[in-house]
């Protein structure tokens, strides 16, 4: 039977061998939710970039430049990190260069994997189906917050594990923790996450509607995949 594990923070990546695995990168609030939304609304590619300057330079190559630091849109950038910015006709058939505090860093740390896909609650069933029929063992990489563990990415990992429980075997205890938390939270994730650190952070920025949106299950059936450093649709 295939196995599944969860890396609860990118700081723990050195503990995992990823070359033979399919890695699912998740940053529920809000980077991977934005990416999935952008693909569902017609973006052609997203290039994840770790630092601000490289991202800035990519405007000269015709990219929309997007990103945040500490939740706020970067000065001079075209777009920030709210999924509502990625629903309009202005992104159709365009290319985005994207840099975020945690999400794009987690993608960078995962790039040695055999396959890297992008997960969020918005495309949960599509992710699950892909993992079910894929041949590789799986690692879910939670972006967390500046190296620390967060609840929302762990809940997503738990949701995947719960749906695959009869088909893929947990590798260690992190999948069991994630699954247990998801089962505690699943009936009302918005309330469950009320005291979580990133929800509090985003509440201060007055973007509560982003939180509810990012916790919506199965809004889209798109699956972004990393190929030579660029995200495209499978
Ligand atoms: O860290 C990230 O990648 C972001 O998603 C964080 S925020 O939701 O924009 O604050």
What does this protein look like?
By secondary structure, the protein is of the alpha/beta class. The chain has one domain (3-223): ComB-like (putative 2-phosphosulfolactate phosphatase, Alpha-Beta Complex), CATH 3.90.1560.10. The chain is built from 9 helices and 11 strands. A 5-stranded parallel β-sheet has the order 7-2-8-1-9, sandwiched between helices. The longest helix has 13 residues, at 151-163. The chain is globular, with a radius of gyration of 16 Å. The model has no long low-confidence stretch (mean pLDDT 97). The structure holds (2R)-3-sulfolactic acid. Residues 27, 29-31, 68, 71, 81, 100-103, 143 line the site of (2R)-3-sulfolactic acid (3SL).
Share in β-strands: 15-25%
Overall geometric form: globular
CATH class: Alpha Beta
Order of helices and strands: EEHEHEEEHEHEHEHHHHEE
Radius of gyration: 16 Å
**Strands, count:** 11
Total count of domains: 1
Q: How is this structure best summarized?
A:
The chain is α/β, with parallel strands linked by helices and 234 residues long. It has helices at 31-40, 52-57, 103-110, 124-133, 151-163, 174-185, 189-192, 197-204, 208-214, and strands spanning 3-7, 21-26, 45-48, 64-69, 72-73, 95-99, 115-119, 137-142, 169-170, 224-227, 230-233.
Characteristic terms for this protein:
33% helix, 21% strand, 234 residues, globular, 9 helices, five-stranded parallel beta sheet, alpha/beta, four-stranded mixed beta sheet
